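Example record

One chain of 177 residues, shown exactly as stored in the release files.
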Amino acid sequence: QGHRPASAVCYSTFVLPLKDMLASIEICAGGGGQALGLEQAGFSHSLLIDNDEHACKTLILNRPLWNVLHSSVAELNLVTYSGSIDLFAGGVPCPPFSFAGQQLGHEDERDLFPHALRLIEECGPKAVMLENVRGLLSKKFDLYRAHLINELSNLGYIAEFKLIQCSDFSVPQLRPR
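Predicted structure tokens for this chain:
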């Protein structure tokens, strides 16, 4: 309870001065689960974006000092953040690649990887972390993954796709990503 000083971020066990934190931008932020983890890892969110109004209201309610934008990534421009971002993160929509869906991949209008690549190019972060479902690793999407890796390589990144079990990182869920 109480007011957080502007010069520090408070946690239950430690305090990090803002000047020592890494700057991040997160697209498709949802209710903020990944953003909370990044905050605990030492990231200060320069911007959190989601196209769902309720998700944005949840973020603002729980972290009123976060800079939250209700917007579609298709309409977003991040050039003003160029050179100031350490991490570009996001959980782009999974339905285009999910085993539970039609697996239309890049032919699905919900595939936001092309927009993520454009935004990465605009803001030029030092690192990129995009998560998705296990289905993206299926053979069906080998060429699409190779395309994404090539595009990231052209932007100066060394990219790889890797299956991560959330339970290996103390997340109490069976949630392979």
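Notes: Helices lie at 33-40, 53-62, 113-123, 142-154.
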